[in-house]
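Thread title: Can someone regenerate the structure for this chain?

I was given the following input by a collaborator and told the matching structure tokens would be attached. They weren't. Posting the sequence so someone can regenerate them.
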Amino acid sequence: MRIRQHVNPLKSNFFEIPIEPLAFPVGSPVEVELGSAEAYFLMDRAREDPGTSYVGVEIRRDLVAKANEECQREGLANVRSVFANISVDLPRLFGPGQVRRFYLYFPDPWWKSKQHKRRVMAPGLTLELHRALATDGEVHVATDIFDLALDAMAALETEGDGFFANVIAPWTFLRQSPFSARSRRERQCESDGSRIWRLAYRRL
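Best answer:
Regenerated them for you:
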């Protein structure tokens, strides 16, 4: 089965995706990866910390099915992937203050200028992340494309009125990931020796 590598999130049919309500065990922290692909990162996280609930939000339906099947085979009941559009569906998926961490790892670059509006870190996303994060919740970003890293940094540093604080210092990248979990793309970049730009912010 061939899975599409890139999907335009601004197509009209992705603005009316049926969303099933998400329920989590009482007291369980929630961590969310935006654009989770095969959910390898979340599976690694679940093996390390089985007391947390993990959700992957992915716009490619075939990858969602593949990830959920793999989690079922692995017995990772605390990981699920959902077919949804990050641009519009986060308010329907997560209530205010419900999420402990958001991860945005290796988003599609959409290189052409006319395609930049399709990028995940669009105006308004920081407001939605702030709404859904718990007090002192975190946003983690990783990409091997410097321009995308700068876009994410600019949004998290400047959008809103003091929404987020860089965990190191303003306008500063992390030297290394604080997590041992790795996505497929992250493993590939590390194997190739590609530079990975990492950011971490805390909700204010």
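Residues 61-74 form the longest helix (14 residues).
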